[in-house]
Amino acid sequence: MEKADRMAHQDDSISLLKQKGLNPTPHRVMVLGILGNSPSPLSPQEIFATLQRFHPMNRVTLYRILEVLVAHGLVERIQSGDKAYRYGLNAQSPHAEHPHFYCSHCGGIQCVHAEGIHVQVEDIQKTFPGLIQKMEIRLDGICKNCLRNHKQKKTGNA
Amino acid sequence: MEKADRMAHQDDSISLLKQKGLNPTPHRVMVLGILGNSPSPLSPQEIFATLQRFHPMNRVTLYRILEVLVAHGLVERIQSGDKAYRYGLNAQSPHAEHPHFYCSHCGGIQCVHAEGIHVQVEDIQKTFPGLIQKMEIRLDGICKNCLRNHKQKKTGNA
DNA sequence: ACCTTTATGCAATTCAGTTGCATTATGGTG
DNA sequence: CACCATAATGCAACTGAATTGCATAAAGGT
Questions:
Q1: Which residues of A touch B119 (CB under 8 A)?
Q2: Integer distance in angstroms from CA A105 to C1' C8?
Q3: Residue A87: which H helix or E strand, with range?
Q4: Residues of B at the A interface, defined by Cβ within 8 angstroms
Q5: CATH number, span A1-92
Q6: Domain B1-91, what fold?
Q7: pLDDT tens per residue, chain A (158 residues)?
Q8: Whole-angstrom distance, CA of residue B127 vs CA of residue B119
């Protein structure tokens, strides 16, 4: 990646943080930058590993930064399908509700952009006594890559 | 609950286990019975606590039994919204896809039976390169009870 | 510079879940 | 019945993610 691009991304992160009244510390900028550069949500471990390469930081600090970013709406947190959260940038535009696909083989997560998914939360809310704040649709299965790699080996039952 | 009911449930559990070729051990029958009596999915901790009252067993044994039950399709495992799984009986009839509601305040889970939820997995599958095996819709929010308790605090009503 | 607040680091802890291995049923065969 | 094989359970120790408490460093305001 060109240096100018990185700088631009950094500026983006900085202004995002400032918009939310958050101190744009180097650590926060880095975390936000990593999330912004990723096409899919990342686990804290993945973020942590990426950080180690250029900008090592304490695990706890990462958790706390993610916590702050989520609390201020800069980052979305979704169920991963195993036992951990994944983090990704919140779209600035009204966040289009889309399913996430979780590969039970490699543990990877993908965003699924599909028409035909129109769940009317409002309709549910009409009859549901609690307060619905968020909806998450998760698809479980085997991703394209694992499917391909698996086809030859796959023999017999599991 | 009447003794006859309990016995009937026990018989149910036993025959379910036998149907799947599983040894209907007392522990397994107990776990299945607890799940069958619960209107909503339970965490291993909740199941464990219930077991302690009449039928104490080792944590590990519970985990292993749940594992076996899930593997044989007797029990469904869903994401809880915090970090743990919840377990519930699989409906014998073709399991109607329904959302689960997760209360971020008390951590409770409820099944939501709502019309107006018609996600066409088949439509997604047409354009999605991976293999979709399962879909989960999770609603997050505040449940009726927590909502009420929360209002009471705010308004001072008792 | 001084002090307060904020951000980060480090060590220790929690908690769910898992693994390895010993022990106890259970079932089948001679 | 004795004997062995297997399945089921228990116990202890371990893992890995996440959290907490407290110490230290950095940033901001007067």
A1: 116-117, 119, 137
A2: 36
A3: strand A85-89
A4: 79, 81, 83-85, 99, 101, 103-104, 110, 112, 114-117, 119-121, 123-124, 127-144, 146-147
A5: 1.10.10.10
A6: Arc Repressor Mutant, subunit A (1.10.10)
A7: 555 555 566 778 899 899 899 999 999 999 999 988 887 778 888 899 999 999 999 999 999 999 899 888 888 777 665 665 677 656 443 345 678 888 877 777 787 876 666 667 888 888 899 999 888 888 888 889 888 876 654 443 33
A8: 15
